[in-house]
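Worked example

This section walks through a single chain of length 168. The input is the sequence exactly as stored; nothing has been trimmed or padded.
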Amino acid sequence: MDYILWYCRIRQKLLPAHWHEYSKNLIHKEFYQQIEKKTNIVSIFKKGSRTDANNYRPMSLTSVPCEIMESIIKDAVLCYIESNELIAEHQHDFVSGRSCLTNLLEVLETWTRILDSGYGVDVIYLNYKKAFNTVPHRRLLRKLSVFGIDNSTLQWIMSFLKNRQIRD
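Given that input, the structure is written out below as tokens.
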């Protein structure tokens, strides 16, 4: 039995009874292809002046069935990756219990230890502000495959990423 189907069955126990029939169809990629793949794009304010367009980030709003399946697949894939220890120890963003703050605290501790030992520290800062807006889909799917994500889940993710449209 593939991991995602197992996860969906576990998750069904946490959801209302009417979800069961609905989810049996959702886990098949063919059904996802029938879900409307048009999204609404809205601007979400981050910080700073509200008159500066750079202080907003785009957010894609999809249909409810799409959001539900996205959540199930994301949770299942993350659970699989974490349980198989496939996330690097120093990965902080997008990991439960870790954040930008924990990353800074960890690196500050390392720098302090180096400085206390009488060595110097040189730091280079890189700005990956838009890095996650440009993740190549093929590379993502290949990496998930190498991690051992089953083919039916990869097919669903590929279907999710393919042929998306912005609603007029």
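What to look for: Residues 114 and 120 are 7 Å apart (CA to CA).
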